[in-house]
Amino acid sequence: MDDTADTRWKTDPEAPEAAEGATAGGGADDLDRRVAAAAMRLAAGQGWRNTGLLAIARAAGVPPDVFYRRFPNRSDTLAAVSRIADTAVLADDAPAGSDESARDRLFDVMMRRYDALLPYRDGLRSVVRDLRREPLTALAFSRHFGRSMAWMLRAAGVEADRTGGALLVAGLGAVQVRVMRVFLEDDSADLSRTMAALDSELRRAERWAGALSRRSGRASPTEAQAAPQSAGEPAREPGSASAG
User: Mind listing the pLDDT tens digit for each residue in 32-66?
Assistant: First the structure.
């Protein structure tokens, strides 16, 4: 794949809007939606490794200078998909019930995130497969991935900014990596397989966190139950297996 090939600007006739529309109205959120949709559509059709940045810009109907300012690297187009899912979750800022555990809140937050990723699933399947051959893109994306996981914790009422928050973020990232594999192949109408996998992973993480807090004596059970890292398994590099 060569992102520099055929550098003459030409708008894709199937782009959702004319190229000049990218500079007028809509703002960054609209740009993210258009670029994410174009990138995942191309990835689904021809493979992520065969999808260049100029091809994405053309398919989205975005002039290269506008595209460059927000998406200078391939990881930035993947970050657009994550931002769309994150903002969909954060837009529903309903207060959690007093009887809900941190695990229950995280389950609800992450399932809402998977719902938001559904339109991009075919493309994400290709990204996850091909990203193993792009370690630099995966490494660059890991920063965006960590930020997403931190905000999902906050959306669930788990403080990711306190001491130990980095461990919580890494833990939720590890859960996401494993559940993402199920989500990408889940053909059930209600994502029941994804729900079962997420519930299992979060329960496993809760047991691990409880055992850790008892050994260390430094975390309360309430704090510990929010740490979603699986027992005996270190967090993997997020970008190595999950692009959501």
Answer: 999 999 999 999 999 999 999 999 999 999 999 99
